[in-house]
Amino acid sequence: MTSMIDFSKLYSAAVPAVPSPKWAPFPPYYFVGGNNDPEEIPVEGLIKAAESVLRREGSKLAIYNLGLGTQGYPPLRQFVADKSARHRGIVAPIDDILITTGSGQGLDMISAMLINPGDTILTEEFCYQGAMNRFRKLGAKLEGMKLDEDGIVIEALAAQLADLKSRGITPKFIYTIPTIQNPTASILPLDRRHALIKLAREYNVAIFEDECYADLIWDGIEAPPALYALDPGCVIHIGSFSKCLAPALRLGYLIAPWELMSRLIPLKGDSGTGALDQMVVAEYFSQNFDTHMNHLNGILHDKLKTMVEAVEREFGTAAECWAPKGGIFLWIKLPDSIDVRKLLKPAADAGIVFNEGPAWAVSPDNSSSHLRLCFAMPSKQTIRDGVAAFAQVCYEQTGIPVRSANVQR
Length: 409
Fold this sequence. Notes:
CATH superfamily of the largest domain: Type I PLP-dependent aspartate aminotransferase-like (Major domain)
Number of domains: 2
Largest sheet: 7 strands, mixed
Distance between the termini: 59 Å
Radius of gyration: 22 Å
């Protein structure tokens, strides 16, 4: 048998320097990722929807994109249009809607269309890691926008934009998650939304609006209209079905005026997003969306309360929790003396994984004591046990939280 070619000498610059490890099962306390509650997948409803739509239109699966064009299954695009109008105030024809393979594909397409090496992009100071990684991979320079409990601090952004202009820098776009921000789960108030758009217009900066979590809002909390609804002339909008239904379906959507959409479509770069997934989701959600979301949000809110209670019990005043208004994450600040990156390995050794703050921030300088915990997938008892185990690891490594103020374990 001939020896194998040394492919390592052939790798392109695009190959990651650190190869991926083999997949391993989830540890006992898995508080990372955007997974949802396995018990809340509407299996019977999806079975019924699949049977109905397959009997009616299953023969179309013989043709790429069902023979209906590259923008996606029209009934799903119509559902997105209806949902976006009812819940986000967006008025968009289905020609302005593109179904993507998860919102990540939308991120890739918009980034490829807009970013050149050296461009400056404004993102929230605490921000979705996947977006920041994509922007940096294309050579962008990131500037963090200051946040408070209600999202972007407009006065600070105005000063930041003025400073950039004085240095001859015009940001390529503002990337924001205004409705259930990731990781802080804040909602940008209406007055700040108008002010943000005014600044974007004044400085000729586009806005890239990511609303992947906008369907996950607690009962009694209202979200203002999407930025796209307020000014579609300066905003590109993406959303997802991953959080409101199931991440493994890999369905998202992109909304943009046709002038931009026509330039985005050639960047999709595949033979179409999974058609059967689109058909089933359109069939199910066209009849069950509001009922499903009301139920799911109640379950998630209950789990959040369990996690907050566990953090308060185990950490006392040593942990400051941002107050989520929806979503699936809890953003926590520990004392400044703690660098959560040093807790990653001992926590993993104890069967606990969490997201360290610096991976979700533009700069590690203001986030080394922060961490993100996902409460959607684990059971309430697993949440209680996992937070207690994490507090024990933190104490063993840092002496915090002081155990005399907590239950001994």
